[in-house]
Specification:
Blueprint (H helix, E strand, L loop, with lengths): L2 H10 L3 H4 L2 H5 L1 E3 L6 E3 H46 L6 H12 L4 E6 L17 H9 L4 E4 L17 E7 L9 E7 L12 H14 L6
Antiparallel strand pairs: 1-2, 3-6, 4-5, 5-6
Helix pairs in contact: 4-5
């Protein structure tokens, strides 16, 4: 019999060691942990402990993720509440962008809207934008995250520091609806917004921002 035959026999006869319990103490295995020969029972305990440590690490990781998600949820709720408390429509863009900076601890946040109602044509958020910038926003199906390649939108951020990375969120009420603005998050840190980062949460911010700001535009 070779080792495969023995393994097959033991699988087919799971009660073998119950019937021959005296063999358990005599079987010796090399322990990768202790570096010496140990009994089968000791090796089984090592395997159990290794699995337990793996489960502990996995549980700690899940707890960390849960705490991070809870923190994000709390911040998102606070930001949304601030939008609901805005008394004047014209204040919404400032409340929205300032809230993102303060609540989420973001370096810079600004936006531009086009097609605004006549009552808001004089405002900072209705400042003129080029056709290229509007076309770029229209072409975004998900938020853009990455380095600042001399984007026009980076110039909307008032700062003396160079904006090294950006997240640009198109504003629209539905996936196939007209794009009426662009929300821009900027940072001097080139690694703050990267092309491989997840954008699910940013999409939620864009969706909520679009709903809040839609009262300012003629759609």
């Amino acid at each position: 019999m070779n080792s495969t035959d023995i393994a097959t026999y033991l699988i087919q006869h799971p009660h073998f060691f119950e019937e021959h319990a005296e063999l358990l103490g005599s079987i010796k295995l090399t322990s990768p942990v202790m570096g010496r020969a140990i009994s089968l029972q000791e090796r089984q305990m090592e395997v159990v402990r290794e699995k337990y440590r793996s489960l502990e690490l996995r549980m700690a990781d899940l707890l960390r993720i849960a705490e991070e998600n809870h923190d994000i949820s709390q911040k998102f709720q606070s930001w949304t509440r601030a939008l609901l408390l805005a008394r004047n429509d014209v204040d919404l863009p400032h409340v929205l962008t300032q809230g993102l900076q303060d609540i989420f601890n973001l370096p810079h946040a600004t936006l531009r809207l086009w097609g605004v109602a006549e009552d808001f044509a004089h405002t900072w958020f209705a400042s003129s934008t080029s056709d290229d910038a509007q076309l770029f926003a229209k072409g975004l199906t998900t938020p853009y995250c990455g380095k600042n390649h001399d984007f026009e939108a980076a110039g909307w951020i008032e700062t003396e520091q160079p904006v090294e990375s950006l997240a640009m969120l198109p504003l629209r009420l539905s996936g196939n609806g007209p794009t009426f603005g662009l929300l821009v998050l900027g940072s001097p840190d080139p690694n703050r917004y990267t092309k491989d980062m997840a954008t699910d949460f940013l999409s939620k911010i864009a969706d909520t921002s679009s709903a809040a700001l839609s009262c300012l535009v003629d759609i």
